[in-house]
Sequence to fold (500 residues):
Amino acid sequence: MTDKIRFIAWLVATSFLLTNCTQKKALELPVLTHVLSHNDYEQPNPLFDALDARINCVEVDIAYINETLYVTHAIDEIKEDNTFESLYLKPLRDIIKKNGGFVYKKGVPFTLYINTKTGGKTVEKINDFLQKNSDIIASFTKEGKTDKPIFVICGGPNSIVNTQRFIVAEGHLETPKSFTSSEFYMVNLRWTTYFSWTGEGTFPLEEKGQLLKLVKDTHEQGRILRFWDNPDINTTYGENFWNTILDLGVDIINTDAPKAIKDFFDEKSSKTPKPKILAHPQLVNGHWSFFIETKGEEGDTHYTTDGTSPTVNSPKYIGPVLFSKDIQIKAKTFWKKNGSLLGSKETSKKIKTPVLIPSVKADVHKGALRYYYKEDTSNQLPDLNSLTSKKTDIVNDISDTDFKEDAMYALRYKGYINIPEDGMYTFTSKSTEAINFVLLHDILELENKGHQEKKRTVPLAKGLHPIQVDFYVGLEASFNLQIEGPTLQKQIISSNLLCH
Fold:
């Protein structure tokens, strides 16, 4: 899709919103000033996907090659047509012209966050290029900035320049305080360097206190605080993470999912959000049942199971619904306002009838076997089947708690999990600076490559199920495997479930 076609499509959609009967509602939807479209140029429609989601800050990586500013993540990935001007400046100029002098609205300058991928004169050339577009790009002095529709933050080598500046720098809290906020504006930190929390449950008090201090220190310097490498909105606990972090005063958070972010904030703005069909059914009195999570302050949720759109005459959701074959569920919430019937957005999900994985019979003892391997892997994962373990013992849980200070080793856990009753069980693998693989019946596979949380949900029959977990560590790391099910709150797989 060419830039011209993208722009026309965006303009037509925007014009429709602003001229039809929902004009007031469209205008009330917030511009997402706390969101940065990470590596925006890698989206299917660079810039325009962010604009469609009302995101107000996009990240652009730039390399200066052969007198041209290219948009690219790496020099060997440069595409001739992907210039800074063609992908960003020209379409933004066209939008500003059509939209009365701004991208979204007056008083909300659109932010371009530039990362430089080449050194030398790159920042100088970016500044020169922006100066040629000074009618739409804000400039900076020690006293402040000019009022223009686009605001540019630039990170990378030599980003603070002393000439007439059309960029403002980003850095760390340790950047000298002699720089004013019109020279150095954004504190840019990696989330996983400071915090381990991924949004699950409550933010740990110690980490919460550390974040509040970072927010306070940054704001006292007159700067904004941005995090990257953070849990995205579409991760398991993404919504809880974003709600919590924004409430604590963080100014900008990364996303690689513009549409999901738009839906999230639209739901927050709605008094009656769309209902949520839970992904996994559960056994209720021996029958598979699906669940719908209803949200909001008012209205009734109605559903269908034949693929048709629900109406107020469709079945009303009041609790778990039994089913016995694969179905297409659709749900919608309806309510009355000023005598008119209104409806939320429709939600839809296909659900298959689970088939329980049968248990096995075995004579077993408490605990799991753990094998310890210490090998020079030459940066390659060893084949544990071909190695002899240095140590074998029996443990009560699947974690590495007694190897905290070790490095360059591998562990294999082998045994059975004793499942207490038929149902759906979720396995969660969590680790830092490590790689682990989980096999259950040679069916369930979880591969976790560090600083991640991976999940898999499977239907298991009551009884014994064989499990094997391989854990590889290069440097100091931690890891554990958790389980959650019908009568099990989320917990590390431990002695009450493990046997060999």
Observations:
- The CA atoms of residues 168 and 183 lie 5 Å apart.
- Residues 368-499 form a domain with the Toxin - Anthrax Protective Antigen; domain 1 fold (CATH 3.90.182.10).
- The longest strand covers residues 463-485.
